[in-house]
Amino acid sequence: MTIQDRNVSTTGVDLAAVRGYDSPEQHLRDELWRVWLRVEYETRRRWELQALPPTQHEGALGAWRPREITGLFRQAHGEYTGAETRAADHGAREVHDAYLRHSALLETRVERTLSAGRSLPLIDLVRTFRIDARQRATLTLALAMEIDVGLSVALRYLTNDPQARHIDGRMLSMLVYDTVRARARLARDLSPRSPLVHYRLIEIDESTTRHDSALYRRIRPASRLVPYLESGERSLDPELEAVARLLELASPGMFPEAMIERVASTVGDAPVLLVVQGQRGIGKRTLIATGAARVDKQVLALDAAALAARPAGTIASLLQAVVREAKLLDAVPLIADLDDAIDAGGSSQEVPGFVSILCARWDGPIAVSLHGDRLPPLRFRPVIQVTVPLPGLEPRAGLWQRALPGLRPEHAMALSERFAVTGGVIEMAARAAQVTSASELPPVEDLDQAVRSQLYGRLQRLGKPLDTPHSFEDIVADDDTIEVLHEIVAAIRERRRVREEWGFRGPAGISVLFSGSPGVGKTMSATVLARALSLAIYEIDLSQVMSKWVGETEKNLSEVFDAAEPGHVVLLFNEADALFGKRTSEVSSANDRFANLEINYLLQRLERFNGLSILTTNLTKSIDHAFRRRFAYDVQFAFPTAELRQELWRRAFPRAARTRGLNHAVLAERYEMSGGYIKLACERAAFIAAGRSTDITMPILEETVDRMYRERGKLSAVGRLE
């Protein structure tokens, strides 16, 4: 017979009839009663030894005497055991025997509960964090002080300290580390290496200045433990809600089986860094959660940008809580969107310090998600890299039907063919369309518009949409130029057949260079191409793309291409020589080196871009030769001949314009102007005529053009105006 069995049997309890606990609350109640018995025994023993003062003053509450404290013990007896509150007092020996019997019965019930396959939160805590018996008693005492107000009064009386509101080393030396041998362990169990402190199960107040000894430092349990021990609910600590959340996996992600298995095998127990890369919304978190679910784990996603914004002095304590939650919830920490935290550092491209701290404190696998192309210097652990590609045609159709179960297969396939988007974009577009159409199954037209709204919003910061009012009939150019523009339209429309069916190798998209003098129609031709292809066109604002910070230009370019590609948006870089000039062969400074890096990065992105990109330049010779070779089409917009200028003058005046006596042939022969300047001259002449309340006449036009030449430094209206 074990000591535990003997202590239980002396009470006349039938061991065979002892049942396990029906709820965590029952177990916690018995643990509290064990603490009460331990405190009562220690108090009565000191009374018998006359080691406590007969009267203690509790400030404004008055004085406490043994009679009042005895009443407190009787009240606890009545609350926890149902005994009569008027029962006769017992001595220290009887209370100690009751403590041993209750402890033995409690442990027996715990064993019966676990044998029945049920769990108890406190025992799970003990096993998860490998807490020994005295550390468990320390944690239970700290929790009891927070839960039971009467117990806090009894402990203040026992320590003769009316100011005590939490346990401290003195109480532990009386009630837990109560032998000379055990007291030597007290400092160790309150050190940072102790699981109680390392995982922030308890918090030690380091602000005490009265005494240097650890005996007087206040100790509190983690606030999240009380609700957890009462109900066993495995929810995230509210303290972390601003920087972390548990990922909820409603349904497994639609990924290749080999990719899911690779993630599942990585998030087991090995101390590695799983780096998952892919576009925003492509399902990186879903992939990690799907792999973790295979090995019965959860995922604790940390907001990298929010962590990076926290004051440096609070990071260590916060990460201790993260480690505790990850261990308590059996979750894999995920540093989500680490790029955002690196970008928040401005010119610094170093990994934030919290990554190394987390790697040092968490001995299991850590996942990292990145939406950029570059892999930051993660030198803390072995790295296992997984790249999530854009879903194929059929998987995208499946994602559409998952987001909208009633969507017809042919409509799902049509949307899949039209938009090469990620699962996140599909999910957001489906919800947006449901709101705007007030229907669970929106029409395809609403879904089409909803996808465009999700995609184009990301381009607004770095570019602006252009109107597409013109068609091929509006272009005034030589036949070769117009023929090349028609060829570009055919190339975009037939590229899938040529690449996939006919087997031609090359970039999936088409990049085009438009070069020529200002005003010859480069931007207008770009909008004509977009209209012919039924695509939106965005002019990229180079002032927003280019940055003085190292790596920032590449980041902005990456954001532009990532946002444009899935929506088949035409990208227009006007005056691209400002960004895509010649690479410097003689690198004499850091500026030259980083400029070359920016150009090289752009060359790579142009080759991988799946849409139509158009670059225009007024300075053809300034474009790098290697750069020009990467363009499928290099369109030279020649300066208009006299014949073309005559057509431009004729088209520059709307039908409703009031004109009189204009000779377009004379204007075209006399003034060498590009289409842009011709249009500007007509508008300025119209303003003058309207101000004079007359028609637009040849003298007004000649006066306007002469002034434009002088404004641009010409002594006379002779020669080209460009």
- Low-confidence blocks of residues: 1-6, 583-594
So how many helices? 32
Shape: elongated
Count of discrete structural domains:
5
Structural category: alpha/beta
Strand order of the largest sheet: 5-7-8-9-6-10
Estimate the mean pLDDT confidence.
84
Biggest beta sheet summary: 6 strands, mixed
Task: Report the β-strand fraction as a percent range.
Answer: 5-15%
Estimate the helix proportion, in percent. 40-55%
- The CA-CA distance between the termini, in Å, is 106 Å
Number of E-type strands: 20
Q: Using only CA atoms, what is the Rg?
A: 39 Å
Task: Please summarize what this structure is.
With 722 residues, the chain is of the alpha/beta class. It folds into 5 domains: 3-231, no CATH class; 238-387, 3-Layer(aba) Sandwich (Rossmann fold); 393-457, no CATH class; 472-635, 3-Layer(aba) Sandwich (Rossmann fold), CATH 3.40.50; 642-721, Orthogonal Bundle (Helicase, Ruva Protein, domain 3), CATH 1.10.8.
Keywords:
single chain; 722 residues; alpha/beta; Rossmann fold; 5 domains; six-stranded mixed sheet; 32 helices; 20 strands; elongated; disordered N terminus
SSE layout and pairings?
Layout lengths: L2 H7 L14 H25 L7 E2 L5 E2 L1 H16 L10 H24 L5 H8 L4 H15 L1 H11 L9 H7 L4 H4 L2 H4 L5 H4 L3 E3 L14 E3 L3 H7 L12 E3 L10 H10 L6 E5 L6 H11 L3 E6 H6 L2 H17 L2 E6 L1 H6 L9 H9 L4 E5 L12 E5 L5 H11 L5 H10 L4 H15 L6 H13 L6 E3 L13 H23 L8 E7 L5 H11 L4 E4 L1 H4 L6 H13 L5 E4 L16 H19 L3 E6 L7 H5 L3 E5 L4 H10 L7 E2 L3 H7 L1 E2 L1 H18 L3 E2 H14 L8 E2 L1
Parallel strand pairs: 6-9, 6-10, 7-8, 8-9, 12-15, 12-16, 13-14, 14-15, 17-19, 18-20
Antiparallel strand pairs: 1-2, 3-4, 5-7, 11-13
